[in-house]
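Quarterly update from the structural biology core.
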Amino acid sequence: MTAESLQSQDVTGWKLPDGAKARLGKGCTFDMVYSKDGSLFATCGTYGIWLYDTHTCKELNLFLGHTAGVHSVAFSPDNSLLASGSSDKTIRLWDIQSGNLKMILSEHTDGVASVTFSHDGQKLISGGNDELIRFWDIPTGQQVLTIAGHAGYVSEVMFSPHGELLASYGGDNMVHLWNAHIGEYIRTLKGNQDYISAISFSADSKMFAIGERGGKIRIWDTDTGNLLNTIAATTNDDWVNTVLFSPTENILVSNNLRDDVIQFWDVTKAERLKSIQSPQDSTYHVVFSPDGKTLATTDSDDGPIRFWDVAKGSQLRAIDGYAEIFRCMTYSPVEDVLAVLCGFARLHLWDTKTFKLMKNIYIHPHIVTCCAFAPDGIRLACGDDRNNWVYILNTETGEKEQVFEGDLNDITSVAFSVDGKTLAGGDEHGNVYLWDVTSGKNTKKLESKSQDIRNLVFLPDGQLLVGAAGGEIRFWDLTTEETVKKISGRFVASSPDSHTLLCLRQGEIQYWKIDGEKPIKSFEIDKMASEIAFSPNGETFAYAIFEGDQICFCDAHTGVVIEAFTHENIQEIWFLSYSPDGRTLATAGWDSTVKLWNVPEV
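Predicted structure, tokenized:
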């Protein structure tokens, strides 16, 4: 499928596996780059590689195939090829015009962290976690040279603008300069005192910048290896995350992890020329357009990718849809709204009928580790790991309404009772606190003497609370506050009528009656499952294979698999959630996207 034909399609439906009807989100961003002529822009991350038209910000293509996160992407000088390096130990070369995979380079024995094309487009240089720099001949796909230049992983390889030098830095905290044609060692740039976080050549190739985690930028002469200048880039000794020379003049751009400011420097005078104030936590990655007139920025968490006019310091446009690795996901119990907790600080609310992002709520400085909807579908309980409390977030207003305190430590799960009157929160020390939602008072404390309560389920009768922790599923009588039963298992799901529980164990799913002493039946599963969920009508249940293999839908009465779909997810699935009508299943995991599946009929 060509880029032209893809433009007219809804990108939520691009390249989906069988059985899936939509994909929400584009993954977490690890790298982004302009093409040499500035007409194309590519991002890569947890899900794959997205290709854009830089003038319209329209998606042109989505390149899938890596089986782990993609950490680096590069355009060939003639815009015919796109190279991508991944944690799956491979480099893939894509034909940009057709969208087809051209070849796979697989000599690295560990993840590939960086890829870059030579100026004539005939060679590709890669740096990997196997501590090697590898030179590849593009026409043949053969490896032609290997350099063992670092005592540690190679974080980045970079050509100088005039094409004569190759720079590399890695886990040994060293920067080396090499002859770009034959790989001969030239020199090491010494004198840095803090851990290196970023590097950049000047436009004329005569200077080289190194950003450090102690807040300094050091400028070097590439011909002599002498230190020319030192810039105190931050006032708080924070990590300099980016150093980037303009491609048209010797102006340097920097940013750090704490200040939401993009800074422009005169490197000869070590003076700041100007700055651009960016939104909170929005500038982890920064790249220049080839003409130096535009900056693209994004953060390590949620995007969007923002494009800035360098001269005016104003935002031009943005690309939405990116998110950090998910921490929690749950459907509203009353409508087709899916709440997805991204990273530490953002909550995304998706309309799963229209596939549109309804709202993005920034909840910093709270570190929310878990969430659960109240029965009204508006209030959301959030476990705040920084303050060790649970609070109610109104998803319509974005305001925090109530705070529930207790002696919690590292909150891991929250749950509402069926009537919404009681709220439970569990922590990593095996404690569960219960609060009266109306008064906000802590009414009970339940102890399991286990660790890491990851799964809390109120049974509809209101008398029992079930929790999974440390390979054990525990039943508490809420009247007596006593444990009435313990069974072995890692995850539990309750049928809507509360008569049946599904217990997920190693290689097995068991059926339990609430008052039973033994499972009434069980069946084996071939691989480890990560999570299990009952449909709202009780007719089906679904479970996910942990290592990104299958989503299985089962007849809830017999346990027989009705249909199994290969979800083609990169690495693990962590969350399952049925829509209120039971017709859609949402899955999410490490790749920072949500897939929506049609639930088969029994």
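The helical segments are 3-6.
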